[in-house]
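FORM 7B: Structural annotation worksheet

SECTION A. Query
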Amino acid sequence: MHIGLIGLGKMGNNMRTRLREAGVEVTGFDRNPDVTDVPTVEALVQALPAPRTVWVMVPAGQITDSVIEELNGHLEAGDLVIDGGNSRFTEDFKHAALLAEKGIDYIDAGVSGGVWGVENGYGLMVGGSAEQVERVMPVFDALRPEGPREEGFVHVGEVGAGHYAKMVHNGIEYAMMQAYAEGYELLEKRSDLIKNVPGTFEAWQRGTVVRSWLLELLVRALKEDPTLAKIEGYVEDSGEGRWTIEEAIDNAVPVPTIAASIFARFVSRQDDSPAMKAVAALRNQFGGHAVKSND
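SECTION B. Predicted structure
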């Protein structure tokens, strides 16, 4: 199978590597000449056999809009566009409608795995027609983790469902990170009693009910910097957490834990707290997100 991939940043470049290692032919485009395979989006489209499949992996918002509009000008009926970025699910309806005017199909794919996905595989949440999802299943199988398909891939529903599921996933992620971070701060505050904070988290990795990959990443961060002294407790939010809360309000679903985790990030921009140092360290570990250094 041969697909196009637009956007070769941290995740896109790693996805290209994983796909190629699985035998999927990939032609990639990026504005960075050091990583791109072709000079333009038009050249990418011309390099693909019909019916074409193009995976878009660029930042959500105006950049995604512009890429899809450009693809709409080059693709033909029967081609397929997959948006694997973190677009808001409501944008999927707009993009699908635009492409449908020319008979171009559309899939939205929520992708989780961060910078570690190239080794471990990516969790995939997909929205679109069953026919189109099945058409590109070799791509999804190459990207997902090894093991049973249902443990790393889900066809959630029609267009918009994939990004909706990813939005809720990220809201949960916000809350989980905040819980670990608050526990870290409490342990760190009682240094008179707790003499080994990093070791405490490390011991929780086996046999405890709070074990998880996020916990493993926090342990990794503490091994690199046991007191997180090099990290400023300033944490950005990428949008999905806010969207989750807005959806919860619209549907009268109480999400106090997720909401509190968002507000904690706002507090981090005013106060350099140990808990927010831990959240910043976690985001850096799983997603390669930049941190503010105290150096």
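SECTION C. Observations
The chain has a mean pLDDT of 94. DSSP finds 13 helices and seven strands in the chain.

SECTION D. Sign-off
Analyst initials: ____
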